[in-house]
């Protein structure tokens, strides 16, 4: 049956259970053969938040089912695999543990090497994942695996140009707000990060202040489309200090909370238009701050690292699923003469295992495997050292 | 059974039901309550059946004022202070009983919980009835807290429903926590259940800036320096979104010499920072995303306590019952931060719960 496999590289089964989602994928090189995500947001909606123990039980209950579907859709059997990879951090400790134990067992059962992946690197490299029908052009980027098979990977650029490094990358999600310098794949420097709340968290919290439930970031986006972003001006965080390498979202959250409470004095609830305008105003300010700090930091970094060639900006994480956010990133890239790289499908933005597979692919090529006896969860795992530019 | 909208209630009708040993469901400023004549043994037995309550669990009573309370309980001086400050309102005050109420109302050690509902209609009914009624939530034991009539009825068996004689339908109540229970029978006031009113024996200070808040955190922490490494210290932080709970924790981190940036743990729930001193680590927890208290937190807190960590818990009021369990093993400092008049003003009150 093996001849049926769509093989464009080593076949890796990946597992991600870093927080709310239970996900298993099968990738071949950078090609996604299957990417099954079981979201617990329905369970959590009932409680208005993540219930850690519930999260663990849900992961345990669902993971076998998710695995079966991932193998089924990829038309793969356990023996066809070249490796098993799993997220070891950062994330919710109790949830990470479920995925690691599961992956360890799978790798053991099929006697395959195990690869430990940083969840953030997964988000960062998610734009490199390719769809099954993507045609790989001939490339000068070639790798050999341990069986001396040659694999090539081609950057997802429309003009068939190979990827060049250094590049930049951003990860914007519920738990992370990062700008990194990608010296090469696997080597990162943190150029800017949040000093308090993450961008996604900030959007979720503002949505909660407007009574939009949890997680509210996605609902906020829809409401913001109908609103006037200039109606309720909010102070831009770190104004004039955008070169310090920090994002900050706690001040704007406080200002927003005060604004909402003020509007609520004397009336029972906000009217629809008020909610639309407030959503638009908040989202505008939150994104504007992100773009300002990102642009300033990138501009300061370019001369230091003598970056001259075509520069790519990798964009990953759930917040980037927001169309307005991507529009702003494109505008910024135009000004900087950068090429932005976004994941090819919405599923790759939120937490998912295929992005872990993409990151694992590069580790596989370097034979960067981990001893199953030594693998452990690292809830506060970092992606690189912070540098000040 | 009669279900009557609050505006249509005739006080005399309710009083008659109570006089006949009937069971009345009534709204209060916290939850819906189940009331029977607290001096009528038969009525209290009926209430036990309704609540499916194990024998030996006492009921609080609702009275109109401190004068009425004195007839059934010994109100000592610390209780008087509590009555003056908090009643009428969502606080139940425990005193020694005078042992003249129906069996099963007072606790086995003879104490009695008294409450004065901040709800005019109910005060009027008790006043006309001229006897205390039971003040217990209108759900069966371990069932959902009742904020509207269907919360109650959806969780009752047909047999339980037949026990109800009269329902005062006050509509959907604001979702407030159950009353705070305060025991005044010992010298020290101890808090048994933390509801909407937080008690802090301690201080209140004004912070005028985030830096100021960090300094206040430092000052409070330094008062407990002698316990560093011997006992866990838990900072249970309470306050609205954006009030500065993370800023307060940043102050704790600075005091301990942590140079890493302390960021919000909302997403990961827990962030730990190692410390190079008698204290080994600072653990920063945020339970904002959590809605139900479960054993996970027990397990982790036990570990933090045995590690003698300094623990900062944001939105601690959500798991206050869990935190309070450790009052012997750990020093628990409750910190409440509120917005002040000016934009950057914060009122920080804090105290140790025993």
Labels describing this entry:
heterodimer, A: 389 residues, alpha/beta, Nucleotidyltransferase, domain 5, seven-stranded mixed sheet, five-stranded mixed sheet, 10 helices, 38% helix, B: 354 residues, DHBP synthase, Rossmann fold, 2 domains, eleven-stranded mixed sheet, 11 helices, 18 strands, 28% helix, 26% strand, elongated, tRNA processing (chain B), L-threonylcarbamoyladenylate synthase (chain B)
In short:
The complex is a heterodimer of chains A (389) and B (354). Chain A has 389 residues and is of the alpha/beta class.
Give the helices and strands, then pairings.
The complex is a heterodimer of chains A (389) and B (354).
Chain A: E1 11-16, E2 22-28, E3 31-38, H1 41-47, H2 52-74, E4 83-89, H3 93-110, E5 114-118, H4 119-125, E6 142-144, E7 150-152, E8 167-172, E9 177-184, E10 187-194, H5 199-209, H6 217-225, E11 246-247, H7 250-264, H8 272-304, E12 311-316, H9 323-336, E13 338-341, H10 354-365, E14 385-386
Parallel strand pairs in A: 1-4, 4-5, 8-12, 10-11, 10-14, 12-13
Antiparallel strand pairs in A: 1-2, 2-3, 6-7, 8-9, 9-10
Helix pairs in contact in A: 2-3, 4-10, 5-6, 5-7, 5-8, 6-8, 8-9
Chain B: E1 2-5, H1 11-19, E2 24-27, E3 32-35, H2 41-51, E4 60-62, H3 66-72, E5 73-74, H4 77-86, E6 91-97, E7 111-115, H5 120-129, E8 133-137, H6 149-153, H7 158-163, E9 166-169, E10 180-183, E11 190-193, E12 202-207, H8 210-223, E13 232-238, H9 245-255, E14 270-274, E15 281-286, H10 295-306, E16 310-314, H11 320-324, E17 330-339, E18 346-352
Parallel strand pairs in B: 1-9, 2-9, 4-7, 6-10, 13-16, 13-17, 15-16
Antiparallel strand pairs in B: 2-3, 3-8, 4-8, 5-6, 6-7, 10-11, 12-18, 14-15, 17-18
Helix pairs in contact in B: 1-5, 8-9
Subcellular location (chain B): Cytoplasm
Domain YrdC-like (chain B): 8-197
GO biological process, one term (chain B): tRNA threonylcarbamoyladenosine modification
């Amino acid at each position: 049956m093996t001849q049926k496999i769509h093989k464009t590289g080593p076949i890796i089964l990946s597992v991600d259970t870093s927080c709310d989602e239970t996900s298993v994928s099968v990738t071949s090189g950078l090609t996604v053969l299957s990417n099954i995500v079981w979201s617990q947001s329905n369970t959590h909606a009932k409680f208005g938040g993540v219930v850690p123990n519930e999260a663990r039980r849900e992961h345990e209950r669902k993971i076998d089912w998710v695995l079966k579907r991932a193998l089924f859709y990829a038309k793969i059997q356990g023996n066809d695999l070249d490796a098993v990879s799993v997220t070891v951090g950062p994330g919710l400790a109790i949830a990470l543990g479920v995925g690691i134990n599961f992956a360890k067992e799978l790798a053991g059962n099929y006697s395959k090497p195990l690869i430990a992946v940083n969840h953030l690197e997964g988000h960062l490299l998610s734009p490199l994942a390719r769809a099954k029908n993507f045609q790989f052009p001939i490339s000068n980027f070639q790798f050999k695996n341990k069986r001396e098979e040659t694999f090539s990977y081609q950057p997802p650029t429309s003009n068939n140009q190979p990827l060049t490094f250094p590049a930049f990358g951003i990860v914007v999600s519920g738990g992370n707000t990062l700008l990194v310098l990608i010296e090469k794949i696997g080597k990162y420097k943190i150029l800017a990060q949040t000093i308090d709340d993450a961008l996604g968290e900030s959007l979720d919290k503002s949505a909660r202040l407007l009574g939009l439930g949890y997680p509210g970031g996605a609902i906020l986006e829809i409401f913001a489309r109908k609103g006037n972003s200039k109606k309720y001006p909010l102070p831009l965080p770190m104004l004039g200090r955008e070169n310090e390498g920090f994002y900050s979202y706690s001040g704007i959250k406080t200002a927003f909370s005060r604004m909402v409470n003020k509007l609520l004095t004397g009336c029972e609830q906000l009217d629809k238009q008020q909610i639309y305008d407030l959503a638009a105003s908040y989202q505008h300010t939150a994104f504007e701050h992100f773009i300002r700090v990102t642009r300033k930091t990138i501009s300061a970094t370019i001369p230091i690292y003598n970056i001259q060639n075509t520069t790519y900006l990798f964009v990953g994480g759930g917040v980037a699923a927001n169309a307005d956010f991507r529009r702003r990133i494109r505008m910024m890239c135009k000004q900087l003469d950068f090429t932005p790289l976004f994941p090819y499908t919405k599923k790759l933005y939120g937490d998912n295992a295929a992005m872990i597979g993409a990151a694992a692919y590069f580790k596989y090529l370097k034979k960067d495997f981990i001893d199953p006896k030594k693998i452990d969860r690292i809830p506060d795992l970092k992606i690189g050292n912070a540098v000040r530019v | 059974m009669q279900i009557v909208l609050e505006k249509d209630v005739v006080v005399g009708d309710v009083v008659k039901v109570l006089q006949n040993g009937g069971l009345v469901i009534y709204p209060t400023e916290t939850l819906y309550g189940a009331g029977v004549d607290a001096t009528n043994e038969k009525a209290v037995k009926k209430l036990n059946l309704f609540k499916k309550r194990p024998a030996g669990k006492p009921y609080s009573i609702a009275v109109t004022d401190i004068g009425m309370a004195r007839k059934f309980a010994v109100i000592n001086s610390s209780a008087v202070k509590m009555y003056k400050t908090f009643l009428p309102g969502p606080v139940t005050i425990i005193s020694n009983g005078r042992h003249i109420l129906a069996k099963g109302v007072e606790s086995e050690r003879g104490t009695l919980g008294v409450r004065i509902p901040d709800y005019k209609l109910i005060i009027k009914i008790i006043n006309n009835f001229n006897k205390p009624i039971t003040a217990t939530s209108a759900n069966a034991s371990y069932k959902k807290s009742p904020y509207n009539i269907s919360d109650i009825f959806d969780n009752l068996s047909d047999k339980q429903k037949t026990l109800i004689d009269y329902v005062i339908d006050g509509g959907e109540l604001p979702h407030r926590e159950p009353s705070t229970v305060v025991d005044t029978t010992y010298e020290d006031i101890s808090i048994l259940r933390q509801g909407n009113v937080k008690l802090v024996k301690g201080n209140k200070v004004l912070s005028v800036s985030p830096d100021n808040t960090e300094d206040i955190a430092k000052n409070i922490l330094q008062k407990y320096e002698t316990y560093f490494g011997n006992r866990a210290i838990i900072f249970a932080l309470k306050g609205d979104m954006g009030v500065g709970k993370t800023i307060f924790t940043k102050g704790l981190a600075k005091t301990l010499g942590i140079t890493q940036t302390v960021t919000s743990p909302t997403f990961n729930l827990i962030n730990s920072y190692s410390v190079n001193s008698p204290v080994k680590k600072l653990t920063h927890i945020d339970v904002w995303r959590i809605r139900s208290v479960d054993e996970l937190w027990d397990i982790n807190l036990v570990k933090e306590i045995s590690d003698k960590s300094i623990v900062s818990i944001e939105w601690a009021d959500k798991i206050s019952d869990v935190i309070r369990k450790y009052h012997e093993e750990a020093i628990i400092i409750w910190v409440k931060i509120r917005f002040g008049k000016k934009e950057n003003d914060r009122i920080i009150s804090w105290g140790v719960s025993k």
